Amino acid sequence: MNSKPTRRTTFAFSHAALVAFFASNLCMQAAVAGPDEIWQQARKAEQVGDYPGMVKLLLPLAEEGDIAAQYMVGLMHETGQSGQRDLVIAAKWYRKAADQGFARAQYYLGDLYYRGKGDMQNYGEAMKWYRRAADQGTAMAQHMLGIMYVKGQGTEQDYVQAYKWFTLASTLLPAAAGGNYQPMAMKARDAVEAKMTPEQIAQGKKLVDEWKAVDESPPGKAPYKE
């Protein structure tokens, strides 16, 4: 015997149909839209929770070299919001944006290599991309470099370098991340300092001053176009 649809199931079907129709409509519009219009459509897709549709809209822009689109396509594949969680694809798109100097993509690419499993874990690659992001002022990348120098991951153990990067991270983290990140970086710096000689501490402080004196480029732009 066929059961009569309830109000709840009818609403669920209607919502699913609405999302499907909305995504289809956006994709048809994207075929004739310019980059700015596509970004507006992508934001609308995100607002209704249609992340796979968002990725479909941004993919052509990513393929054309839009670094913000490349970053977002990578992020959606890392989180699984694209419809599938694929770290290899995520790394591919992060790298394309990272190669163009986008600091946020550089940091997340480094993070994939640092925290990855199996063939994905590569401390040498992690250090390389963390370093590029750190040199642009990305505080969490600086913090991760400090950790890697303390542990000797992807490099020889170096307390002077660890001190440098923890110190820089502790000065930038309040504005960059908030929360308890600044105390965390300061605690890590103090722990390293306790193992250093006075000469090493002086050398570490000199490296900090030298880094601050260099006119670095600003961190990578936000993932969405304004």
Structural commentary:
It is built from 11 helices and no strands. The protein is an all-alpha fold and 226 residues long.
Helix content range of the residues, please?
over 70%
Structural class: mainly alpha
Number of helices: 11
Uncertain stretches of 5 or more adjacent residues: 1-22, 217-226
- Overall average pLDDT: 83
Cα-atom Rg, whole angstroms? 22 Å
Largest beta sheet, briefly?
none
- Overall 3D geometry? elongated
Give helix and strand order, one letter per element, not per position.
Answer: HHHHHHHHHHH
Total number of beta strands: 0
What proportion of the residues form beta strands (DSSP E)?
A: under 5%
Terminal-residue CA separation: 55 Å
Task: Describe the structure concisely for a colleague.
By secondary structure, this protein is an all-alpha fold. Helix content is 71%, strand content 0%. It has helices at residues 7-30, 35-47, 51-63, 67-79, 87-99, 103-115, 123-134, 139-151, 159-176, 181-193, 198-213.
Tell me the layout of helices and strands.
Elements (H helix, E strand, L loop, with lengths): L6 H24 L4 H13 L3 H13 L3 H13 L7 H13 L3 H13 L7 H12 L4 H13 L7 H18 L4 H13 L4 H16 L13
Helix pairs in contact: 1-2, 1-3, 2-3, 3-4, 4-5, 5-6, 6-7, 7-8, 8-9, 8-10, 9-10, 9-11
Name the descriptors:
226 residues; mainly alpha; 11 helices; disordered C terminus; elongated
